[in-house]
Amino acid sequence: MGFGEILVAGQKVDVCNGDSWQRIRHRDDVSDDFLADPASIGAFKSGGGKGGDLMAFSKCGQYIIKELNKGDHEALLSVTESYVQRVLSGKSLLVTLYLHYLELGSGRFFMVMRNLLRHPGPYIGLYDLKGCADDKTLERHGRKIKVVNKRVWHVHMWCGDCAWSPDRVVYHAGKVAARELSITVTDKQRNAIMERLRSDTAWLAQQNLMDYSLLLAMRKMSREEFDRDPTATWARRGGPSELRQPLLHVGEGDEAMLVYIGIIDFLQKWTTGKQIAMCLKVLERNKATIPPHPYAERFFDHFSRNIQGGAQPLDALAQDAAASRPSEKMMNFYSCVSFEDEALKLGVETPKASRSSTQWWSCFSGICGR
């Protein structure tokens, strides 16, 4: 370890494989002192995972700083060079990492990743998908879904859904909807996604990694908002093989549909502990804890079925927004749709353009730096 002098929140840190991470930062025009300001990072909170590792967002919203446990730290060390080559190829859905470092005062390890979601919520839908029983809905029509797991020590939850709390009912309905989710993109976007997904899952299996997720977010944008949004304009200017995000297609009427998609949480190695966990969960069906190669095959097969083409490319809109020059910073979007969707019982699907579809209304306010 050791790479010059890099500051994170005003403190010098010891960087792991610094030359490698610098290559990715330079490609994306991210300076080495991008988090040097003590005021650049928000408060650390539990990331919500089983390990309880801490996570924080940069104040600008572009980066996520996540604490690494011993296993994740060692996994990242072992795959750094191969991962960097994959990301620099431009042919990967893996979330982009920019830094891996040791906090000298505490002895804790952290990584810094790009926030995949360049537009703030709320979202039509936000999902954590594994292609198995662990799929979940995180947000639906701007309504965040509270996680209520059915752990073995929650004895009452195993006595039937009549004993479930309202939050558990909504959470379970979201899991069912996430498993049945149909993701609609354009034909060219689907081809590019599946090419990357095939390559990424093969690489993950080769690296003995499993339990990763596909993060998916969907957001609508009015034509007026789209025309002045620099991120949407930048994404539209990319060629179909480049797969700039957000992915864009025609929504209802004159609206644009924005789709974010990427692989996250990919540092879980297949260990003896995982093998024991698989045995303990022998009665669970379609579980997440399976060896890397079967996990990769199931992951790819699931999304090859559930990611569908057929959406209308945004270029079909009458006016060419790509030719316009953005004049404002990215706007924050606030959905005003009703949240009364009966605990998600109808399931969720990426909306397609339809004259008969229910009208969506929105209001937006606030400025967020890009």
From TrEMBL:
One annotated GO molecular function: ATP binding
Residue ranges of domain PIPK in the record: 1-307
Keyword Nucleotide-binding: yes
GO annotation, biological process: phosphatidylinositol phosphate biosynthetic process
Xref: Pfam families: PIP5K
GO cellular component, one term: plasma membrane
Key words, A-Z: ATP-binding, Kinase, Nucleotide-binding, Transferase
PANTHER family: PHOSPHATIDYLINOSITOL 5-PHOSPHATE 4-KINASE, ISOFORM A, PHOSPHATIDYLINOSITOL-4-PHOSPHATE 5-KINASE
Stated name of the protein: PIPK domain-containing protein
